[in-house]
Structures are given as structure tokens and as C-alpha cells.
Amino acid sequence: MHFLLTNDDGIDAPGLAALEVAMREWPGARCTVVAPAHEHSQCGHRVTTHGPIRTERVGEDRHRVHGTPADCVRVAIFALGIRPDFVLAGINEGGNLGQDVVISGTVAAAREAAYHGLGAAALSHYVIRELAVDWARAGRWIGELLPPLLALPTEAPGFWNVNLPHHPPGPMALPDVTHAALERAPLNVSYRREARDDGRLIECHYDARYADRPKSGVSDVAVCFGGKVSVSRLGLA
């Protein structure tokens, strides 16, 4: 099976490295990395159509793209001639839950692949800032999670959105996997205001805490924040 790997944290991100290690351990699997040169978190489904997209081959089956995550998928398929069986975007450093799926570059990469008829999954790791992320463990969890997920029947066009919970680093079995709907409540939004230039200029600094976001008892946010793996099947608009 040929996997195309990408992300929105950039080609040097630890989450992508962990995913690549996990996928290369699959018997007979081939992996091609086509990832952004720089971080593009929260860029949404932005694509580049009014200028060149510089692409560099930086290793065997590895390409660095000076563009967005959605650009990476487009360039891989339509410029580099890569024909993957499945596209994996991640592992993102931070959750992509509820309203995040509209904002996320990681999710956009999986969505772009699905638009072109490819199987795809967005993979993210919720982060509690006080805890280190055990990326090697996250990669192993994804390696265990994906085979049964890829075996599930999928009639309508769409893609998977997977969010790993954040537990303290160290040996730990894959947490329970729960299929959940997206949280419908919006993200908390608040700003700290600072006056400049005798009050004529106001700087607004976003200061809402992701961990304080609303969550219902059955949503993807509630599942992931509760220590389980959240899996959602997202359709195409």
C-alpha cells in the first residue's frame, strides 16, 4: 500500500517523523512525504493558484513544498505524478476537533485528497501544555489504529478525522477508540486589549484557552478530553 504523508506543522515536525516511522514498519508499505517547508497551522483550505509553488526533492521519496498543506496534496498528485492509495495528514501537534476542522491545515490536506477520490485521514494529538508529547508512542498508536479503521466500509465520499488524547509520557496501550460527532459549540474567543499611540491604536491579543472550550457529553471534544481516541467520519460539502 502506498501512503502519501503530509502535515501543516512542516516537513521537519516531530509528529510527521513519528508517523513516517510507524508507516514504514507496515509490511510492504511504501511512503512518500510531500510536506510544507514551513508551518501552516490554522491556514484552512488555502491553495496557491496565482504564482509558482517551489518544490524541492530532499531525499528518497521526500519532497519539501513552499506552499500550504492542500497545495502539497495537489502538487503530489498533479505535478509530481504520485498515485497513493491513501493520504495521511499529521500527526498534528494540537487537537483538530469540532470547529477546528474548518480552520485546520491538517484537515484541509485530508479533505483535498478526498475531493480527488482518495482515501484519507487527518491525524492529530491533543496537547496539554504542561505535558511533554510522547511522539514515538503516538506513532505506535496510529500504527495500531489505522488497520481496523481502513477496513471499515465507507459508502459516501469523505475522510477520517482522528484525535489522540494527551496522557503523560511513557509505556501505555492504545486508549479506547470512540466514534463521535463533531462538537457543535463554537470555540471560546477572548482578547486582551493593549492601547498604543495614546489610545489611537488597540492591539488585540487572543488569550482564550483551548482546554476551556465547551463540550457535550457525546462530542469528539468530550471523548478526546476524556482520555480516549476520537474518530469522526467527515463528509464533503
Major sheet size, sense and barrel closure:
9 strands, mixed
Helices and strands, in order, run as EHEEEHEHHEHEEEEHE
Nearest-integer average pLDDT: 96
Q: What is the terminal separation in angstroms?
A: 28 Å
Low-confidence stretches: none
The strand count comes to 11
Alpha-beta classification = alpha/beta
Proportion of beta-strand residues: 25-35%
Broad shape: globular
Count of helix runs? 6
Helix content estimate = 10-25%
Radius of gyration: 18 Å
Enumerate the strands of the largest sheet in spatial order, edge to edge or round the barrel.
3-4-2-1-5-6-7-11-8
Summary of the model, kept short:
It contains six helices and eleven strands. By secondary structure, it is an alpha/beta fold. α1 packs across α5 and α2 runs parallel beside α4.
Descriptive overview:
The protein is α/β, with parallel strands linked by helices and 237 residues long. The protein is built from six helices and eleven strands. The strands form two sheets. The chain has a nine-stranded mixed sheet, sandwiched between helices. Helix 1 packs across helix 5 and helix 2 runs parallel beside helix 4. The longest helix is centred in the middle third of the chain and has 16 residues.
